[in-house]
Write a structure and sequence with these properties.
alpha/beta, 4-stranded mixed β-sheet
Length: 302
């Protein structure tokens, strides 16, 4: 009866899982990051009925495993995957539809400091994984199209990335090197035409802004909603688990470095051009208009 039940899910609701056990206070999410023996991050997901004892024990487990434990609320994607799915990866897919190549996007993001660009990561992790995540999401919520139109189309064709030899990129037997995939390029052009998206040349500067700024904005949403306790937690998640360049401190710290007034101006600019997905988070507006920062907001909550 005293045993804690922990789930490694990256998507399913811990609160819903806990409700079925009859002992919701003893259920927690311990979301390890792949490969689990290497990655230092451990997201600790608190359901609505979790006890303080279970939460503190989970943090102690993280310490004993030499992991960096970060507590997250129970919401779609928790902290890391919510920022990735709703911000970074989603916008990278939109850029594909608008005319940027997979190679350009990955080159720009790797130049920024990530070890791998989003398209390479998608193929390595498995295009079908994100597809299944969105299947679960769509049971409860909707998203305006286009939303992962490229990845979903690839998954429906059985092109899952490295494990099938074809995804965003093409792979040769026994070779993990990503090669240009003309079939995927033709698919992207078809998907764009169906949506009446006029393809164009996109600058590296625009690619970088449109991949990084949504991380900051969605992170601010998580803080507004109470899913993340602190901006620092978002930064730890992304530097310890997602490869955000550590010398830049994480997406929220990077937002402070850019200046939140500037970040808000650029988010509003893209909202005017691209609509719904670029709606500024309430906390971003509040801090930018006050001339404040995420760091100051964290300190004010101590």
């Amino acid at each position: 009866a005293h045993t804690i039940l922990a789930s490694n899910t990256s998507t399913l609701s811990i609160t819903e899982l806990a409700a079925e056990t009859g002992r919701a206070d003893k259920v927690v999410g311990l979301h390890f990051f792949s490969p689990a023996h290497v990655m230092r991050l451990l997201e600790i997901v608190r359901g609505d009925k979790i006890s303080n004892e279970t939460l503190v024990t989970s943090l102690e487990i993280a310490r004993k495993l030499r992991k960096v434990g970060v507590v997250s609320g129970d919401a779609f994607g928790f902290i890391g995957n919510r920022m990735m799915q709703e911000g970074y990866f989603r916008e990278a897919e939109q850029l594909l539809l608008e005319g940027a190549s997979a190679e350009q996007i990955d080159r720009v993001i790797e130049g920024f400091g990530f070890a791998m660009g989003p398209n390479k990561v998608n193929d390595m992790a498995g295009v079908d994984v994100g597809y299944k995540v969105r299947e679960e999401l769509f049971k409860k919520q909707t998203r305006p199209d286009p939303y992962f139109a490229v990845s979903d189309a690839l998954a429906e064709q059985g092109k899952f990335g490295q494990k099938t030899g074809e995804g965003v990129y093409l792979y040769k037997p026994g070779d993990r090197t990503p090669y240009r995939n003309e079939a995927t390029e033709a698919l992207i052009e078809k998907l764009a035409a169906e949506r009446q998206i006029k393809r164009r040349e996109i600058s590296d500067a625009e690619v970088l802004e449109r991949c990084i700024l949504p991380l900051i904005n969605v992170g601010a949403e998580l803080l507004s909603e109470g899913v993340a306790y602190r901006a620092l937690d978002c930064d730890i998640v992304w530097t310890a688990g997602y490869g955000f360049p550590r010398h830049l401190g994480g997406p929220m710290f990077h937002g402070d470095t850019l200046g939140l007034k500037h970040v808000l101006e650029r988010v509003r600019y893209y909202e005017g051009k691209l609509g719904h997905y670029w709606k500024p988070a309430p906390l971003l507006i509040e801090l930018a208009e006050a001339g404040s920062s995420f760091e100051a907001w964290d300190k004010s909550r101590k």
